[in-house]
Design goal:
alpha/beta, 384 residues
């Protein structure tokens, strides 16, 4: 049986001030065409379909569009809610959609109720485990501690119990939205530690033939049977080095897995550049980033004038600007006591002003005012 595994669409999300709804539409068209060309038996979407609980209308319309495309192509889809989704909103109409081959799994009680697919070798049971917030489902799953590993482990026990009642040789696939130990994170994922210890071991998925994971935005293989597809688009500059893709998964008669990556369309590459402003403006090797979305980090000891405007003239798609002065970086490697050693109060105060003003030291008048203030403080201490 062949699956197309994807996740973390985050429909409605942008990159800094750039809307990505058109790029998301292009991706979803690519997904449907890929599913058709490769004759997949089902599309698996492992959560975070939307970027927020109440998505914008354009995102909802885009989701509706891809559902109609998949149903029209008679390609079944199994989808779960992620930590960005509102499970109850996403699950509206799930019962009706089942008849069209779109299987939304947003209710924790349905964890052990699989979507049953059939090929020449028999049945494949596809279990959808929506994102399980420990505090909300702890009693429902009768676990003692509100930890991700506890509630997900309880859900997987229900899956294995159901699987044990099915005919011998039934293959099993699980969709889950979680942070599995060993996965590499990026800046655009929402922290899920508030609900208890975030990480869960990959061994929780023992007993099934494939675990299609969502939540982490980088495509990665934890084991041959446990994989993240990653997000189809880059949602932060920490993903500049990602190759965005989906997994084309083949499950043979014995349940052995073979995976192949299918690249996603790239609306515009991301680039991170670092250096002094004049160097970034003059370096010929950076010309390759002219049409990229760019994040620039300036290392000038003092903040240069109009850096955004000057950089934008060379990099028209500059989206983010940060400052990391070289002097501050060097100072940061020394302890606070080492940085103060040998300095009097006047020098310490002047250095503090230079630090908060990104390298701009106090002028003569400011130094005189500091001197008078420090002297007044010393007099006050003596008179106290």
């Amino acid at each position: 049986m062949r699956f197309l595994h994807t996740s973390d669409w985050h429909l409605g999300r942008g990159l800094h001030r750039v809307p990505l709804i058109e790029a998301q539409r292009v991706f979803l068209d690519h997904l449907v065409e890929t599913a058709r060309q490769h004759e997949v038996d089902a599309v698996l979407v492992a959560g975070d379909i939307y970027d927020r609980a109440v998505p914008p209308l354009a995102a909802v319309e885009l989701f509706d569009r891809v559902l109609r495309q998949l149903a029209g192509a008679e390609i079944p889809a199994v989808m779960i809610s992620g930590n960005h989704d509102s499970a109850r909103r996403l699950g509206v109409g799930a019962g009706l959609m089942d008849g069209a081959g779109v299987h939304l799994r947003t209710d924790p009680e349905e964890c052990a109720t699989p979507v049953l697919l059939r090929d020449a070798h028999g049945e494949v049971a596809v279990y959808g485990l929506p994102y399980l917030e420990p505090q909300l489902v702890r009693e429902q799953f009768a676990v003692e501690t509100a930890r991700h590993s506890a509630v997900l482990g309880a859900a997987m026990r229900r899956v294995r119990e159901d699987l044990a009642r099915r005919p011998a040789g039934t293959r099993a696939v699980v969709l889950a939205h979680a942070f599995v130990t060993g996965g590499a994170t990026s800046d655009s994922e929402r922290d899920i530690t508030a609900g208890g210890a975030a990480s869960v071991p990959a061994a929780l998925f023992d007993g099934v033939h494939y675990a299609a994971l969502g939540h982490l935005h980088g495509c990665q293989t934890l084991t041959e049977r446990v994989r993240y597809s990653g997000s189809p688009l880059a949602y932060s500059f920490s993903e500049a080095g990602h190759r965005k893709s989906m997994w084309l998964i083949d499950l043979d008669a014995a349940g052995e897995v073979r995976g192949e990556r299918v690249d996603c369309p790239v609306p515009r590459p991301l680039a991170r550049i670092t250096g002094r402003l004049e160097d970034l403006l003059a370096d010929p090797s950076l010309e390759r980033h002219r049409e990229h979305w760019v994040e620039a980090t300036l290392t000038d000891p003092a903040r240069p004038p109009e850096p955004m405007a000057r950089l934008s003239a060379r990099f028209p798609h500059l989206l983010a600007l940060a400052f990391a002065p070289e002097q501050a970086a060097r100072e940061g490697r020394r302890s606070y006591a080492e940085r103060l050693r040998g300095r009097d109060d006047q020098r310490i105060a002047e250095d503090f002003i230079a630090h908060v003003r990104t390298g701009q030291a106090p002028d003569a008048q400011e130094r005189a005012e500091l001197r008078r203030a420090l002297e007044a403080a010393r007099v006050g201490e003596r008179d106290a």
